[in-house]
Specification:
alpha/beta; about 350 residues; two-stranded antiparallel ribbon; TIM Barrel
């Protein structure tokens, strides 16, 4: 599949035309008035660079190491559900393309494909988990994921309840086969006492997850420095700056605005990831320049999945091309060279002119 310079920008519109309206709306909707969801993309565009010059950029290498494993690209796939509603092969198409690119895929606990089948693709994958009020109910799924080859657990920390959405049309669940989601839960799970999402998450749950799974734990859903420090002190191997794609607390700050503060607070004690509105290689460079160890793709990967494995493969390749070009133009041979590149422009003072005199 060939790509063009603005191919990534057209993915959302192609998904809009191809998908049933309720499915597309589910992908793009934010909480309440979608203030946070609508600000995400522009927030990355507000980051500005101070590029290096007189640097040899004949060869550039965007590779990173994530939780001790090398990755040739500094991005991965964020956990999303309803992938089989986007394309019949769903998580399998996403996994195969991501494995070929050498990236990591985070699999939603609400996935529509058995963990065993995802693991058989050869992709390096992490399990995303919500903890229930009765923690013991999570143990069978954790055991199943470990047996299928998961190499980390990502605890989603920002969803004590599911936020209200103002859907314009009917619910996606009116027309989607429920067999496309939550296939890795035991039968009858949702009817059991204590299966509702935990409202009492705390730092102790990080240790509990690490003990039960034997895997490193990533905490997803942070936007504050103090929360990041607490997670690292409690043993998190990584923290993930995320506002859930604007789907939880509306009017939450953009992740681009929160990232540098979290990086400074962690101060090398754990890896730092970010998602939310990343749409190009320039956005990847902005996130790396603000200190992220990797970015994760949610909606963009789903839009590409409309075209199946080939679409996701094209996404990885185009993002690699764009990121390598951005690195060269910024005078950076490696991700380590990006760390002093990016800054948010200062707020304009009231007396400053809006254009040059």
């Amino acid at each position: 599949m060939s790509t063009e310079a603005r191919w990534l920008e057209g993915l959302e519109e192609r998904a809009r035309r191809a998908l049933p309206p309720t499915v597309f709306e589910y992908l793009v909707e934010g909480a309440r008035d979608s203030v946070t969801a609508n600000e995400a993309v522009a927030a990355w565009s507000s980051v500005r660079f101070r590029p290096h010059v007189l640097r040899d950029v004949t060869q550039v290498d965007p590779a990173v190491t994530l939780l001790g494993h090398p990755s040739p690209v500094p991005w991965g796939i964020a956990p999303t559900t309803l992938q089989r509603a986007v394309h019949p092969e769903g998580e399998l198409a996403m996994a195969r393309a991501t494995a070929a690119a050498g990236g990591v895929m985070v699999v939603s606990s609400n996935a529509g494909t058995p963990f065993e089948q995802i693991g058989e693709t050869g992709v390096r994958w992490w399990l995303q988990a919500y903890l229930p009020a009765d923690r013991t109910l999570a143990e069978p799924m954790l055991e199943r994921a470990v047996a299928a080859g998961a190499t980390a657990v990502v605890l989603t920390a920002d969803t004590p309840v599911v936020a209200t959405k103002y859907a314009a049309g009917g619910s996606v669940w009116d027309n989607v086969d429920r067999g496309m989601v939550r296939v890795n839960f035991d039968p009858g799970y949702d009817d059991r006492a204590g299966s509702e999402k935990a409202n009492d998450l705390g730092p102790h749950d990080i240790d509990w997850l690490a003990d039960k799974s034997g895997l490193p734990v990533v905490v997803k859903g942070l936007t504050r420095a103090d929360d990041a420090r607490r997670c690292v002190q409690a043993g998190a191997s990584a923290v993930w700056v995320s506002n859930h794609g604007g789907r939880q607390l509306d009017r939450a700050l953009s992740t681009a605005a929160c990232l540098a503060e979290v990086v400074a607070a962690v101060d090398g004690g754990a890896e730092v990831y970010v998602d939310g509105g990343v749409r190009s290689g320039l956005d990847v460079l902005a996130a790396l320049g603000l200190g992220a160890d990797a970015v994760f793709l949610g909606r963009l990967a789903l839009y590409a999945l409309v075209e199946g494995e080939a679409g996701v493969a094209a996404l990885h390749e185009e993002l690699r091309v764009q990121t390598c070009e951005a690195l060269r133009l910024a005078g950076c041979r490696t991700v380590a060279d990006t760390r002093d590149l990016a800054a948010h422009p200062p707020e304009r003072l009231p007396w400053q002119p809006t254009s040059p005199l």
